[in-house]
Amino acid sequence: MDLMILNPEVQVFINANIGTHVATLALQKNPFPNVDWITILNQIDAKTKAKDKLPHWFLSQNIIYPSKLSVEQTSSEKTASYKASIVTGDHLIDLTGGFGVDDFYFAQKIKEVVHCEINPDLSQLVKHNFEQLRVPNITCYTGDSLATLTALKTNWDWIYIDPSRRNDTKGKVFMLKDCLPNVPKNLTLYFKNTNAILIKTAPILDITAGLTELQHVKQIHIIAVENEVKELLWELHAAYSGPIRIKTVNILKDKNETFDFIWNEVASFSNFSLPQTYLYEPNSAIMKSGGFDEVGSFYKVNKLHKHSHLYTSMDLIPFPGRVFEIQNTFSYNKTAMKFFLENSKANITTRNFPDSVESIRKKWKIKDGGNIYSFFTTDENNHKIVLICTKIS
Fold this sequence. Notes:
The protein has 393 residues and is of the alpha/beta class. Helix content is 31%, strand content 26%. It folds into three domains: 3-69; 74-262, Rossmann fold (3-Layer(aba) Sandwich); 278-391. The protein has helices spanning 8-16, 22-25, 37-53, 55-58, 68-73, 77-84, 101-106, 120-132, 145-152, 183-191, 207-213, 284-289, 292-299, 334-340, 357-364; strands spanning 91-94, 112-117, 138-142, 158-161, 164-165, 179-180, 196-201, 217-225, 228-237, 245-251, 256-262, 278-282, 302-303, 311-313, 321-331, 347-350, 373-378, 384-391. The strands form three sheets. A nine-stranded mixed beta sheet has the order 3-2-1-4-7-9-8-10-11, sandwiched between helices. The protein has a seven-stranded mixed beta sheet with strand order 13-14-12-15-18-17-16. A two-stranded antiparallel ribbon has the order 5-6. It holds the Pfam family PG_1098_Fer.
């Protein structure tokens, strides 16, 4: 960790160049010969990335950033705050500390937080940042987290783990056993030190596959931010063997959309109908959950088709996702397309439809944008249809 980067003049230069392409800056002469130029450029790049994702860090003085990639891979403050709402108690250990964003928020709920990081440079950097952020109840340990867990001999209220995929797993099916640390292999050891484990995984992990590798799963949280799924949180409790609750949350600027259901519960089923007055598209967290029968049953809306995952109703209802008013419905054919959409401007969504958005745009010369929303899908009679809509929310 190069503390020369905290020179006030260097910091002024970094802040003045937030948002500037570092490839352009790299062509310039280093105005600070005593400070490594690549380090300065990396700070500009990483801090630019942190502006929206980590506003508390961005607005604080004397923060040192790791690589831009590390900032991209860390939790956002929004998702970290949600994680902190899950945990309770006095003692939590994070076995995969990283940049420490999650631990900053855990420390607002937990009396003592331990941050474990195998990379000594990153561990030192995070310790420095916690001091600048005035967080006194986080202790940083460098080295193998299993060794730290064993050495501390503490009965933890929570163990938190964010396993990373090994480089040799690229292109392969994502399994937890392919990550570091290998959580399925170490699970018995973890439960000797705690009764509660929270695991963060990338959204690409298949829920069914994860459940085949893990034991004692009580809840799975699917977290989206502005309708983009960011992470899955697996909540494990010692000896738990009951029903698994799926909690979906879509964190928006002014509210959170939430929907919960029991995994593989047979009580829910879908009703079907042709398009009515309103159209509903579930948010991305619900889409990831696979709770398509459950959301339709709970909100009393009808599905257009078993595989379309679009819903309709006569009366307008609040719904966790996008809501539209249907203006026109027609069969997908040359005559109708020429009349309604050819050479027009519209937003296009496909659900359970054979053609891609790109091919539809090219074939019918439809420009992107505007106030018209068109859904290309399949109805309950297996007919290919197009819905012309206006957006409500």
